[in-house]
Amino acid sequence: MDKRNKLLRNNTVQSLIASIVCIIVGLFIGYIVLLIINPSGAWGAITAVIKNFLYYPSKPAAIKYFGSTLVKAAPLIMCSLSVLFAYKAGLFNIGAAGQYVAGAGACLYMALAVKAPWWICLLAAAAAGAIFGAVSGALKAYCNVNEVISCIMLNWIGLYAVNMILSNVKEPASPYTVQLASKNPGALLPSMGLSSLFYKNQYVTIAIPLSIFAAILIWVVLDKTKFGFELKATGLNKFAARYCGMKEKKNLILTMVISGALAGLGAAFFYLSGMEQWSCTQTSVPGMGFNGIAGAFLGSLNPIGTIFSSYFIQHINSGGAYVDKTLYCAQISDFISAIIIYLCGFVFFFKLWMNRMLDKRDEKRAAASKKGGEA
Hints:
By secondary structure, the protein is an all-alpha fold. The protein has helices at residues 2-9, 11-37, 42-51, 59-88, 96-112, 118-143, 147-166, 180-183, 194-197, 207-224, 226-236, 238-243, 248-271, 288-298, 303-319, 332-344, 347-374.
């Protein structure tokens, strides 16, 4: 029993249980909403969202579309790491969306206009995201401008700036940028044989293992290095960090630089796969950066946890494509994701409730054993 209590008090175990509860409750509420809209197709719709690529009966098709889900999960992992890294330093990087846009603009321009190789495009995307992050970090460090405000403004500045820049490399008859495969195949990320594992899904590239490696690297930096300790100390109390000799302003700026670079790389991982083209007429910031907030918190702000949480979020988002469009809109998967994100805000209270429940149980057990001893 002591081992069980010790296990339940473990922070990682509590986070895992809380995340699973959030997912189950979110799916249940989504199912209730589907029942309200149209009861006849509710079970089929929620099943389609959960199954995603398993919707296909043949194994080759299922594995191929599983690869497509992984392709979209890779940039989401990077955006989740971007949000997580900033949060560890006490910053809420809602600008991951704008940094993602900047990375997309930089990598596509370098690929289509300059015709640079893929690794140069990756570096350009990371640099563009880092610059956007540095602006918010500098405003926070030296002018005490709330990073949420500066990030939101930069999101829209980045969107319209990228639209203008990429208009120079778009197709003549459409608002989309020229396809990489036809203009500059050397800018496409290499597959390294991974595509053959997913029945020749050409979009599966080294972005998938690179995103997982990035998560492991961020975990090592935050938990195993002096630099990571200083960042977390600055986030907990910048005044105490300054008193201990830490350069809190430098740490704030550097944190946002790294966060921006991660989001920028996420955009490069996606657009350099060739799966999608950028639309130069879009009027909304891509949701990948905002979904990174969900991935970070559903993963309990753990770099390794973001790998699984990001995949799950992308899994149900992609599953929305298989919902019967005559009965429901495809955005039902976004609705379910939003509910799960909202419930993530109660993870702390769930942990508090669980610890209180365990404390009361220990008190009752101690009182019972005391009575037994007196008898």
